[in-house]
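Troubleshooting log. The previous structure file for this entry was overwritten by mistake, so regenerating from the original sequence record. Sequence copied from the archived sheet and checked twice against the printout by T.R.
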Amino acid sequence: MQLARLSAVLGGQSLGDLYLRRVKRRALLRRGLGAVAGATCVAGVLAGPDLLSGDGRADIRTRHGETQQLALGARSTATLAPCSAIAFAPGGGRGAFTLLQGTVLVESRPDAALPFIQVATRAGAVRAPTGDFMVRRDGGRTVVTAHDDMLTILPARGPRLTLAAGHAVDLEPDGPGERAIDWGLATSWRNGMLIVEDGTLGDVVTGLAPYWQGALYITPRAASIRASGVFSLNDAGRSLVQIEEIFPVSVRHLPFGVVTINSVS
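Regenerated output below.
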């Protein structure tokens, strides 16, 4: 019955089989593996973090709604957003690590014992002696944002880049080029807020997904709706209510924390 409802909500998209596999997988985990509920981050169809539990490389990971700040040296820190995972370089201390998934905000200060911070990703590496910067890896994209200092970027493919302060760049070969950003908006998640200006409802749901204890599904038509606003990350449930009140969509809650968002216009 739930599969039929889900299929109807999403206009007959091929989500039923995926949902059924998730139900079976969770039942198997409960019976055979003793999985802890809520310990992993479930991927969404169009929005949401990737599943992290299968990546054994992670030294540190965060769960839904969880942030974690790490000391990288005497004067530098890294803050992991929810549903993020990093792996430290062998023998490199905490000054060099790989971002496997999610978002990390680095605040680096001059330190004789730590001449630079390096964050590697599949698409390339970022190296900075000082300054604040952020690296986000999700949905197959790798976005680097610089705050107050230029960054040296070593792409996996292509020549070395220098990213100007107050700009962002997508490191994927087909990604958008360098563009100006508002650092306060880009890092508003640290204050429990999601601020979207001239974006889409898909952007909003993507931002909420790491804070929702389940999976968020949004249809392509609903995801394309233009959206701006301030949404609470500390209360993702209230933000889903807000979405239904403001935008022409219906929000359905199904078992296992599954939420579907469909256009009604």
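The two ends are 25 Å apart (CA to CA). Archived copy saved in two places this time.
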